[in-house]
Structures are given as C-alpha cells and as structure tokens.
Task: structure prediction
Amino acid sequence: MMGSSAVTQKGMSNMKQKFPGFVVVAMLVGIFGTSQIQANDLKDLFKGYLKNKIAPPVQEQPVTPATSEASAEKPAEQLLQALMGGNVSEQEEDRIGQQIAGNLLGAAPLVRDDGLQRYVNRVGRWVALQTERPDLNWHFGVIESDDLNAFAAPGGYIFLTKGLYQRLDSEAELAGVLGHEIGHVLRKHHLKLLQKSQGIAAIGGLLGRKLKNESEVLQNVIGNGAEVVARGLDKDAEYEADRIGVVLSARAGYDAYALPAVLAEIGHVAKNDTRVSLLFKTHPLPEDRLSHLSDAVTDALDALPEGQSGAGRFYRLR
Amino acid sequence: MNRVSQRVRSQVLLGVLGWHCLLLASSVFGMATPPQKTTQQVAIGSSAVMLKTDDLRASPDVKSPLLLRVEKGAQVRLLNSQSGWSQISNAGHTGWVRVLSVRKQGNEGIELSDLGELGKKPQGKVVAVAGTRGLDVQQLSLASYDPAEVERLRGYAVSRREAEQFAQAAGLHPREMSYFAAPNQ
Result:
C-alpha cells in the first residue's frame, strides 16, 4: 500500500527535476485543452505545485515501514529527544527494532518453511518468558543465508541464519543461541550502541530548523540498511549475552550446557571460512567465549537437575 | 546425552578421515607429509587443554569420589562428553571434569561439513562455495526495508499462552536461577 504512493511521488519528483512546475502545467494545458475532467486534474496538479512551493515535501524515503504514515513529525521529534536523552520508550524501541529487522530481511528473507518459523517462535518465546521483559513483542526468524550467525535488534527482533540452524543438534542448542540474542535485547546492547553513535548528535542539530519524518529520522539513526547488525558490540557485551544465554536455557528447563556446545561446534569451523567471517569479526573467538563462560559459571550449575536436550522435538531442515 | 558423546565420536572419526583427505591431497600436490600425522591417528580421544583447575572425579557427578586435581593449562586427552561433564585422561588417570573446564584443541582448519559433502559429490566443496549466500557488511549496508517480510515475520509471532502450552506439552519446567556475575579478569 505504501508502494504505489511512493512510486507516484517518485515519478513526480523526477519530473520536477527536469521541468519547473509551471512549465509542466503549461505543457499539460496545451496538450489537453480545457475539457471539464482534465481541468479539475490540472487544478489539483497546480494546487499540488503551489503547496510544494510553500512547503516542500520531505525528501522521499525509500525505506518506509508500514506503520509510519505522514504527519509523523511529533514522533520524530520525540524519538530523537528520547535517543539523545537515553530514555527510549518500549514503543520507540520496537520501532527502531522493526526498522532494523525489515532492513535485515531485505538482505536475507525468511526461510520459506512455516513449520520451522513457528517452531523457532515457540521455543524463543518460551525462553523469553523466563526473563524480566517477558511481554515485549518478541519475534524470531530463520533467514536465508549460509553464514553462521545470529542477530538481535532492539525491541525483541531475533534472527539466526539457516547455516547456523543446520549446525544445531537439539532444541536446547536452539534455546541457547536464542537466549544469547535475547540477552542483547534485555540489556539493550544495540540500543546503547545507537545512542552512542555520532549520527544522533548530527541529526539532533536539525531539530531546531526542520523536522524530518519519523522513518527518515529512524534510518538516519540506524545508518545504512542493516549495517548496524554488522557493527560489533564490545566484547563484554558478548560475554554477558553468553552468560545470560546459559542461565535462560537453564531457567526454561533445557540443558544449560547446550550453548557452550554450540560455541565449541563453531570453534571447529576453520577461521578463514567465509561463512564465519562476519561472526568472528563481530564476536570474540569461540575459545575465548568458552574460557570466559567457564570462569563465570564455576560450580553454579552443579546442583541443577539435568535439563532437556529436546533433540527428539528438534525441527530438522532438509 | 548420548547425542553429545555420539557427536564427539563422530568428530574423532571425521578428524581421522580429515587427515586421510589431507594425506591424499598432499600426495596429489606432491607435498611432503609431516611425520606427526601418523601419531594423530593412533592416539585415543582428542588433544585438549584444561581451561581451569578442576577436580577429576570417578563418575560424572559432583558427589562422586575425587581422584586428583588437574591444573589449569594441563594437556589432557578428551575421551567423551555428556551433559555438563567431560571424560578425560591425565597422568594415567581417567575420570570426569566439568565440561567447561576443558577445551578440545586442534582440528581447526578442517571443515567437518565440507568433508561430509566430499562424500556426496565429487567436487562438493567447489559447488557449495558457488552456491553460498553470505551476509557481508556491504550486502547489509545496501539492504532496504522489506515490508512484506516484516508482515510475514509478524504472522509467526507466538503469544505467551501458546508458548506456555508448548512448554507444558514438551514437559519443560521453568527453574529458578540468578544471572551470573562477570568473572574477575
């Protein structure tokens, strides 16, 4: 639904670049004469031209999420101020996450397997229920990529690649991976990264002069496309997410050692394999993550009754 | 539990297979074969290192008898793993330590899945690389918002109630556990 209006707008702006508006109107008058219907069309066109002259339309934004319509000036201002002040509401966090998720899906769409996607959402939501943010709008998805990686965006948008999913052996391992990503959302790691970015201050400078629409502000905050997910967090954030992943697996009734098993598995992939290059660029190496977990866990899991592996339930991809 | 040990076993097996493939490849390319490779095939288990000092126990249970302490950094053989525990041999003793206390070494550089593919298709590796869909920084930067995919994603969302029903049917019982503090570096 956004598509068609965007196309028209785009067509118009292309025209405007080539001819000044009044020339276009004059040309159309010449071509069509003054029959009743066309006269009305021309009147609208002229009105549109005048309106644009007085208040130029905001620059066309190719990445426009479904929920943001025009008249989004207030949210835009609020969003910017929230980001600058560090007090982003849950709703705003969701908007940011949705924009990142939509961009990421633009690069790698969801695997076309309803059974798989539903399964991953059930497991993910169950793990997320064991946290202090159980009622976020949690979304989980497996995306088309042979890479081994997983991503989290603010607000509860979590993805893992098909390549990583195929490496997993059990539901507990899936829960561990999702638990790690859920950890990033709980501690707002990516949100904090965005708040620290230079872009915020630069866009903030525009506030006094001209407000942009919300999605434009959003995209400016996020940067190019889904590049934000390729920006590494600091190592401590990754170690923290690993610790959370282990705890959440345990809380959800799974084998708490499943995440370490996945890390060990990834550690066996050749370091120069292109399928792990982004993962290893943005995360500490698996052996360092295992050492860190080892130091953090100590004997905390000794008293825990053995959890489920859920290997029998694990949804296997062909 | 069996699955984990199965995996360890299959990795050991694949490791051995891997060396064979390397031997084959090196003979094809006329390279000299490093002498230590023969010992790799004979040794039991895999080479591993202790990440921290831990107690070696007679069975995979904290209440089982203590055999000896194994120091951090010690080179051991990793024989088996099961939930939470790894069976190792060290200084003539065989026993169990916590799975996170020991890390397997070596085998890096050999892609297990590639070895699997080699069996299926003669030039499996080449084909696989040509067909891969990676996610690099450039692709991610150029990506644009896909509203249809977001709608699809929304369609898969699961309610709290549905998740609880799923867990109940699966016999998954929530347990209490505090988050771990960051270890002192």
Observations:
- Confidence is low (pLDDT under 50) at residues 1-39, 48-72 of chain A.
- Chain A touches chain B through 105 residues (CB under 8 Å).
